[in-house]
Design a protein that fits this description.
With 100 residues, the chain is mostly loops. Helices cover 14% and strands 0% of the residues.
């Protein structure tokens, strides 16, 4: 079972799925594909190809299912969006023009 895994896109629990994840497995909540770079332990934006595995072929779309043999799902794949900047801008607009 995938007890600690959550969807990379929405954060929904993936405990009902069994490992290893298949290429076409999808999140039951948002239907996002799960065998994707963004869900892999080797995904790292600080590396040129966003992958720490040196022998992996480059995958251009990190959010689409792929055939990478190095894929290993990671538990902390979901990162909530940072809405601070948007919230600050909205507050400033409301201050300038008044709220609804």
């Amino acid at each position: 079972m995938a007890h600690d895994l959550v969807c990379w896109k929405c954060g929904a629990a993936l405990a009902a799925l069994s490992l290893p994840l298949r290429r076409l497995d999808a999140c039951p909540a948002c239907r996002a594909e799960l065998h994707v770079c963004r869900m892999c332990v080797d995904f790292d934006r600080r590396v040129a190809t966003h992958c720490r595995e040196p022998t992996a072929e480059e995958v251009r779309d990190k959010e689409q299912a792929n055939f990478c043999d190095h894929f290993k799902p990671r538990a902390g794949a979901y990162q909530a969006p940072d809405t601070r900047t948007l919230d600050q801008a909205r507050t400033e607009l409301e201050r300038l023009f008044g709220g609804d």
